[in-house]
Amino acid sequence: MINKAGIEQYLYASFGPELKFGRWLIVSKAFTDKLVGDIGALLLDDQVAIVGIGYSGFSPATPSQSYKELIFDAASRAYAECSVNPRKDVGSFVCCEEDLWEGTSITDEYAPDQLGAAQRTLCTLSQDGLNGVATAYMHIKSGVASIAVVESHSKLSNVLSQSQVREFALEPYYERPILSDGIPVAAMQMRRFMHDYKVAEEDIAQVVSKNKKNGLFNQRSSYAADVSVEQAMRSPFVWNPLRRIQVAPPADGCVVAVLASAEKARSMTEQPVWIKGIGWNSASTSAESAVSSEALYAKEAAKMAYKIAGVDSPGSYFDFAEVDDTYAFKELQHAEALGIADMGVSKGNTQADAPVPINMSGGSLSLGDLVEAMGLVRLLEAVQRLRNAERKRSKGLKRALVQSWRGIPSSSGAVAVLGVE
Amino acid sequence: MEYNPLFDGTYHLRPWVDSLPLEYKYSLGVAGKTFSEGLKQGKILASKCSRCNESRIPPSIYCVGCFGYSDGYVQVSETGTLYSFASRGDVVVAAVEFKGVKGLLFHRLAVSDRNKLEIGAPVRPVFVQQAIRKGDITDIDHFELAV
Amino acid sequence: MGRSHAGRNRGDYGEVMGMENPSEPQGTALTPDEWRGKEIFFRNFHTKFTYSWDTGVAIGHFLEALKAGKIVGRSCSGCNRVLVPPRMFCELCFRPTDDWIDVLDTGVVNTFSISYVNNDASRREQPLFVAVINIDGASPGMGFLHLLGEVDAEQIHVGMKVRAKWKPAHERTGAITDISYFKPSEEL
Amino acid sequence: MRKVAVIGAGMTKFRHRMLETGRELSFEASRAALDSARMDIKNVDSVVLGSAPDAFDGLHMKGEYLLDGAGGSGKPYTRVYVGGGTGVFIPAAAWWHVASGVSDVVLAVGEEKMSPLQPHPQYAFWSIFDQFLERPLGVTLLWIFSLEMRRYMSVYGIKEEDIALVAVKNKGNAMDHPSAQLPMRITVDDVMKSEPICTPVKRLDVSPTSDGAAALVLASEDVARKYTDDPVWITGVGWNVDTTFWTNRDLCYPEYVEKAAMMAYKMAGISNPRKEIDFAEVYDPFDYKELHHMEGLQLAKRGEAPKMTREGITQRDGDLPINPSGGLLGVGNPIAAAGVMKVAELFWQLRGEAGRRQVKKPVHRGLAQAWGDLMQVGTVVIMER
Asked: For the domain D4-118+208-384, what is the CATH code?
């Protein structure tokens, strides 16, 4: 952690023992510049970077690999990117998964081997992968680890009882007999959202069309298509007003990210992507929070992340955003909560040429629903885009916003602010 | 021999299918038990927190706002309003709010004229006959439009 | 409210649960009668989750070998081990494993238990003999869980040599239960 | 790394079947912990909750369901999950929230409601096993415990009677715990004659299934000093997970517990745990596990924990009291809540507030440990005053 003692110690080392904090003189501009620069570097040393990211799967089904083999594949790629040996170098492993998506109770039992984490510091969160990034971030900040690994995956193709599992997430007495598989909650939320924010059905169809088309330029997308707004509006209802095409379809895949302290990061990769800020939040479990037109969890998580990153006006700070769009309307709702777009697509605020373009990757509507891995999928897409932009020396893309939501019936989500400078 | 151990490329891609049947007996809890007793008498009960001057549905032994113990129950008004709804085929699912009460109650909505369905419409519960009520949420058969 | 919650409120820190003056902790135990009775309403719920897990390369191959009456492992040239059950990666070296190795269908009891209960905690009529069996041909200590048969409770011991009792070939389906159980391989 | 203190603890009763829902239990424990810290929910920056399998409470994503009851509404909220090791891991997770500078005050809650699952909570344990190689054999959790117990006995030549002493001690200690589910005065003979379940495991070797919750309040140094003159510091945390392939390991010794302990000892600057740890709350869902874990924690030499038990060293008035609370065998085993209960016991013992359970000798440093998964996870917390 950066603190007064640390800066003092650093100044001693740089300018000699006669210098004492509180009674030195500023003699020249060069001196102050060096001071500011060095303190800036010190502050940067307090940061956490993503130094490697690997993935596998990204397909409606992955029959040729068991979940373990899928994870081994993604982990191998992530470690290779930053030359990490998980058996020696990694101080903490964090896996994000839920029992019933695996079909195994206490599913963390099956986490270590394929990550190289046997007899190592590994833990599981029953959370989204982006919460895992927050946990790894805290592990690095608290000194538990200087290199930390985050893993999350989906084998939804193996879950034949997806609607039963979703039903099982509902409160048993008041909600389960009424709300079927929970999808009516999304539909009710959508109706209330459209009502409160005066969003037209066409606006939501615009999101579908944009994301499905964006996905055509992404190798990882399974569900990309050239869909017009008009076609999107003809899709059948799952639960009125929610249409089939507005729901992210299930997909398999695994993402593994390697995080490191600033000190380590610079020697591990030429392209560190800095986590400038991170936040997470849960609104209430209550029914009104489940169908609320406002995404309070995203708003509060963003507030936390923006505070750490020093973001004052997100609408002009970010170059692009990867935002949860499990249901098409959620993209608009989340963009509003994150402060990166005024409501209503008719204003073009979430289109490709918007001030902060959203889901250029194609979003979940193209990539699919990867349950607990969703946050890491958003992170992967943002990291790849930042790195590609840097490689191509295109100046435009340096700061990204990443956001995730845990899905119905939760009101929980996380936000990360990424930067390459 | 049908099985060749030396051939690395032999993929026996096959799924392993199995089920996890689970059976539960959920306790309704302290507040849920009171709510369920209220249903038998045709009442919908909310819990109240006098510090926050707030009542909440479904009732809870704690106040979500101040995280202290709730201190009693109140009956909600006979008519609520439609906060939102969703439909599939003949089934309409509604989120109902009651005046002066935080929270929502989810239930089925029976409606003859879909055109009258709109956010903010007044609705009221229709209970099943007292004799067959058992304290379940389904003691309310459905909600109907109160216009 | 029917219970002592009222009055035990935020703000009046009088009833602190510190253990210097242990006040009665909160919580209402249900009596067996209440649990079975009609006074307190319970919500009953039944569900069934079905999965179709991809066995993947390692387990897919292992199960196929069982069907052919063989037990296979994978070798790792990093640590020179033969791994049973097989996996496509070595958890110690974090590298892909190298080759399929036929191991034997004999082994040694590493540890055992005699189970009088089923997995729903109900009593069994006949006890079940269960053991971890170190498989011959695999690296020392490598084995898997299985059942023991054709043996008396008193005869079972750690270190006992056993051999797989295979189901007839036409009854095998490519499952761990293609081996009915392991039985003593020497005269006891 | 910032200093982290525990400033409050609370728990519900532990019982076989309870009226309260999981949310209500979480609330009762959280409220009690906040009361004991003299704090309000508005003082809490973030919340960490732990709970074991979703199959017990009967809710997918049960962390989300329990959220309101654990005071997580409108806050950064995380559910951590390392099987049976979760309980002691919860305060470790709350620790890194504070140590990293992300939060100043964290509410740490453990909840478990096992009773909803029918016909018996044990059934959930079938689904913890490998779906291809183990579930088709009809495996139960009791198998692996009994297999491990047999291996431990066989390698070190330990008698069942020696192991039974642990059950006698812990159930007796629980007589003084106001939350206890199974306090009783029994003899070694009672344990030996109790019904065999999965030999060598007998009825009285096992902890019960339970409903319950427990909670702690953790704070940074400056906040802690504002609220109490008597903070108890968390000076070491450790966790470790061994390979999934449990049939490829020698079950006689828990290496993962040793590695978790070493992580915590290093952090706390402890080089000779047997001398420097004054008392410990060691995970005891089965009586032999207490012995097994004492050895993993380096509180006993391999195979010698039974001897220490026989000599009375681990009694409340002994030189190294183990499980003065009564442990899981006596107080009950609502899994994640049971681990938090152990850390709460450190808090109460170190503050001298354990009443009739207070250990005889003066204590300055205690250790709590839990274990989980397929005999795989070790979690350790060290606290000092």
From this structure: 3.40.47.10
